[in-house]
Amino acid sequence: MRPAEFRELGRSLVDQIADFLESLPSRPVTRGEAPSQVRALLGGRTLPRAGSDPAALLREAATLLFEHSLFNGHPRFLGYITSSAAPIGALGDMLAASVNPNLGAWVLSPIATEIERQTVSWISELIGYAPDSGGLLVSGGNMANIVGFLAARRAKAGWDVRKAGVAAREGKPLRLYTSAETHTWVEKAADLSGLGTDSIRWIPTDPDHRMDVAALRREIERDLRNGDRPFLVIGTAGSVSTGAIDPLEALHEVSRAHDLWFHVDGAYGALAASLPELEPEFAGMAAADSVAVDPHKWLYAPLEAGCALVRDPAALRDAFSYTPPYYRAGEVAGEEVLEYRDYGPQNSRGFRALKVWLGLRQAGREGCVRSIQEDIALAERLLLGVRAHPELEAVGRKLSVTTFRFAPRELRGGTEAAEDYLNRLNAEIVARLQDGGEVFVSQAVVAGATCLRSCVVNFRTSAADIDAIPEIVARAGRRARSALAPERLQDQ
Ligand SMILES: *Cc1c(COP(=O)(O)O)cnc(C)c1O
């Protein structure tokens, strides 16, 4: 593609994207099309033998995406913990892809590596983490947590686990401790690392969904008596279902007392530690050995961007570095350099940092804090709106997660059959809302009850969007109720 053609196609694409972003509020969140319908749009073709005109291709791709996507940038997208993407991140990604540095090695990415280093350090500073910490950007929260997990395994196994493997030494299997509210990354980590999911001790939670510290102590002591080898305690700062924050300070004390690695999964919530009014809730996080944070959540970076932070950066080198002869030693012009391939599982690495760095600079600390405060205020506003609606029942609100149910008074029997019906009804409402396109929320099970769950990680959501939700949900609830009559359910 010649520069003149690139210029023309690029301008026209940027124009289309700007129109698309402007039109977001008037579009449905999703079309709820069937997978076969969506697949049919692409035809069952084999790879075309001949090439195509790039102008036509870009027009076609833009139309496909604008007309058949779910828009997490939509002001009424409040599902899971997926954020709206800041437009500066999209421009940053284009710039990053155009220069295309490889951040596996410093010589291949001089300014890009230094931008990643600064980005990681700013994220650490923003959440009040250790000033001498290190870390790197990865694909998301799962990988950031897995990086912390592998650093813990290397540091605390008590033998050279990278060389000898995880097979228990002297019959001492490795054990880790986390609450039942932890995201599923922990099962993937236990599995991928060779420990197996049986190595996870699921510690119960209190009524606020926070880890029960007394139960944690008992479980560690029991494992020690049995000759097992505890190595890791995982706390969550902002759980996926309810936004709960574990008692991090107490978890840190228990970890220190037993010389265990303390990791905090702050993929969603850690960035809220930058809010002065929430600082006390995150006390203890600064003392963690590692923390996972997701810039593609509350920093509004476009997917993908996760960040693994480690108190002692040497722990990452210890966990990941190998130095084969085909790599230059980590030195340039007589100075030591950061070789990111030594800090994580990836070798070639893209320039994820640019979109995050641009977003951080555009907003500044004040902008980052304010946008999180606004999201939390909207979540509280939704809670109040739900409380005021006669057919809805508020369950709770923590950080920007609000949980609630459709539960008209006459259905709240309290019996097992009544609860069972409400659970089915609310699951049906979530499914209808997710396909309907008016507002997108997800589902959570809180203390056995199926709930609707809204999570505001969206700078486009307004108070008016929030105020419309209770009645939209109630309407969907009435329809679901007539479709799912209790008599019919009992027959099944
Ligand atoms: C989102 C999330 C994850 C997973 O992060 P991805 O970016 O989706 O990989 C893990 N833990 C928590 C608490 C999260 O909110």
Portion in strands: 5-15%
Structural class: alpha/beta
- H/E element sequence: HHHHHEHHEHEHEHEEHEHEEHEEHEEHH
Residue runs with pLDDT of under 50 for 5 or more positions? none
Alpha-carbon Rg, integer:
24 Å
Hetero compounds: pyridoxal-5'-phosphate
| Strand order, largest beta sheet | 1-7-6-5-4-2-3
Shape: globular
How far do the termini sit from each other? 61 Å
- Strand segment tally: 13
Proportion of residues in helical segments? 40-55%
Mean pLDDT: 95
Report the biggest beta sheet as strand number plus sense, adding barrel if it closes.
7 strands, mixed
**What's the tally of helices?**
16
Brief overview:
By secondary structure, the protein is of the alpha/beta class. It contains 16 helices and 13 strands. The strands form 3 sheets. A 7-stranded mixed sheet has the order 1-7-6-5-4-2-3, sandwiched between helices. A 4-stranded antiparallel sheet has the order 10-11-13-12. Strands 8-9 form a two-stranded antiparallel ribbon.
